[in-house]
Amino acid sequence: MHSIFKIKSIFMAYLFALFISHVSDSATPKPHLTIYELIYSTEENLSPGYYYDTPSISTYTSEDNPVSWEEYSVREKTMSHLPNAAKKPIPPLVRLPTNHHRQLTTVLEAKALDFSFPSEHERHSALSDGRYNPMNVLPVDVDVYSPSNGKTQIYVTIPRFDKGPPYSLARVRNPGPRHSGIQLEAYPDYSWHRSYGADCDGLTSVYRVKIDACNRMWILDSGEIGRNHTCPPQIVVFDISTHRMVHRYRLPGTVFVRNYSRLITIAVDITDPPPNGKCLKAFAYIADATSFALIVYDMIHENSWRVENRFTYPSPLFSTLTVAGESFQLLDGVFGISITPEGLGLQRMLYFHSVSNDIQASVPLHVINNATNFLIPDISACLGNFTEVGKRGIQCTVSEMSPQGYLLCGFFDPIALVGWDIRTSYTAEHRFVLAENAETLQFIGGLKIAPNAQGKLEVWILSNRAQKFFSGTNNFHEVNYRILKCGLDELLLGLPC
User: Fold this and answer.
1) Within a domain: residue 27?
2) 86 in a domain, yes or no?
3) Do 117 and 185 contact (CB within 8 A), yes or no?
4) pLDDT in tens, 417-436
5) C-alpha dist (Å) from residue 229 to 207, 252, 289
6) Best exposed site among 166, 182, 228, 394 by fewest CB in 10 Å?
7) List of residues 6+ apart from 437 with CB closer than 8 A
8) Is residue 82 part of a domain?
9) Contacts of 170 (CB under 8 A, 6+ apart)
10) Can you point out the beta strands (E) in 395-430?
11) What is the DSSP secondary structure assignment for residue 473, as one 8-state letter?
12) Cα–Cα–Cα angle for 69, 85, 8, nearest 5°?
């Protein structure tokens, strides 16, 4: 009874604050506050006239010092009428009841994927020789490119876990939501995929991509059909505005295990970004999920090295993945990779975790970016620089870092997108649910933060019900795949998407 009363009190305080927050006094000078000064714990700080709660974040307001929704955002915008008393250390965020969490905007949802072909003859040929099997495809990743003078381009990956996908990197063609299928076209064109790994100058099996600040798409091609490496894994980089290849790097046999390694995730750190940099210096970090390692690629020196230790391994205690009541076995290593943003005044770290483990780990960039630290294959190399940040007690999938230092990850229990402020300890009281939906967020395979045409950052998600694909229980009469989005500011501040 006490907890119900407490929840009702929080909700009433929220409504009261929302009402008074629309009163503003433009003549009053506006002190400058960042998001770090705006976030407070709901339960510890909720008191009349001082703090009010949004679904995930609490903010200062009072009748004498009202604050409007429009006067603050995650990007250090100005906020009116806040006295110095509001500027105090940030207490932990807390998880609120499920119905307070944001519902993401559905961009596309579908029961199946609709692959386009250069001709009907080619479609029938691919069906007859097994290169195309509509029942054996699973979209995994999503990324978007929004030119200032054009429409948002949505890209998805469809890895070749076996024969089935006629191509493994595609651009979405749909003009709007469809329930029968997500319409795809091969990217950059069909010729890059048609050989099915026979031509290693093409693309064999793309797991994930990353579009960087230089408008380049980094493509991680695992080089395998099923578990056979028909080609060496490679990184292929395209200028997304011209759709032309600008860089290619084939990984040497010293950094992967032939016919065993499966490279599934790529994160990119541009060390000379625009507008002042020339986009020549970059490091790429790659997850080898099945031979349990990280691979680092130094673009300017065209050199790569392998990092393997106890933090890159799975745990048998977390090898059973249960999503929406359906379980399957997966003993995979590193899955999610994220990087401390520039400009936070923090030591820059590489954050990573294995999907079949509950440990969140990190290592300083200056350590892992130094190839001489890992010249000799040794699981104890620089081990003292690797840190167990904390444990979740549950698995999570891919991760993404916001410019403000919030690490996002797709959790399995709850089935939710969960955030964590990297300035705090990685404990349950410091993790907060941003969006929770047991139907639409089943297995988040793709997670990106990208600017829209106006430069506003948005969170994009691809969910795919992978548990049904791997357990063989797919039902193509139901919606299986979804592409969702929400403004980053709205998501972090608990506002409608």
Assistant:
1) no
2) no
3) no
4) 999 999 999 999 999 999 99
5) 14, 13, 15
6) 228
7) 103, 104, 415, 416
8) no
9) 115, 155, 156, 157, 158, 184, 185, 186, 187
10) 396-401, 406-412, 415-421
11) -
12) 55
